[in-house]
Specification:
single chain; mainly beta; seven-stranded antiparallel β-sheet; globular
Length: 181
């Protein structure tokens, strides 16, 4: 894939618009950025998607003092956060999933808040239980093994706030991150 292709989303859904506020040197509210973050595409057969990393912090609670660049990982074409979870921090992403596409079964050590903005997507748990989420639905993903599948004939967009979490312990056994192929 050419580097140019990384900047052209596979998804036909309009790109995400990111508006960021902050403070002037006088302490007054101001706009810092108004732009579209660069898309990243996944092109493995059956797993086609476009994702936008909108913002990432290096700590929770976040620090809103000072210049933006000093307290967060600013996402641009030269510095994509590729990990699903930002250790000790948080990430806001949008995922556009192609019709028929499915992610691999996985578990991250995070607390994820997902909001379906467009279309429908089905959440599968490791035991094959499933729930279909539609526009406006919210999911709170608490470190379970799961996958996502777009079972429709239209692209779907879900926004995820991913927050680093303590390791999960069940009956004295620590559960690890998992990625099945």
């Amino acid at each position: 894939m050419s580097s140019e292709r990384l900047h052209l989303p596979l998804s036909p859904i309009p790109p995400v618009r990111r508006v960021v506020t902050g403070h002037s040197r006088a302490g007054e509210a101001t706009f810092i950025r108004d732009e579209a973050p660069h898309p990243m595409n996944g092109t493995d057969p059956g797993q086609e998607y476009t994702s936008y990393t909108i913002h990432a912090t290096n700590s929770v609670p976040a620090n809103n003092d000072g210049e933006l660049a000093n307290h967060c990982q600013w996402i641009d074409e030269s510095s994509q956060v590729t990990e699903l979870v930002n250790k000790n921090g948080a990430i806001l992403r949008a995922y556009d999933t192609a019709p028929g596409a499915r992610t691999v079964l996985h578990r991250t050590l995070s607390l994820d808040y997902g909001i379906v903005a467009k279309g429908s997507i089905t959440l599968y748990l490791e035991n094959n239980e499933k729930r279909t989420l539609n526009e406006g639905d919210v999911v709170i993903q608490r470190g379970t093994i799961h996958s996502w599948k777009n079972e429709t004939d239209e692209w779907c967009r879900v926004y995820f706030a991913v927050i680093d979490a303590h390791p999960i312990e069940v009956h004295g056994k620590k559960l690890e991150e998992v990625f099945h192929s």
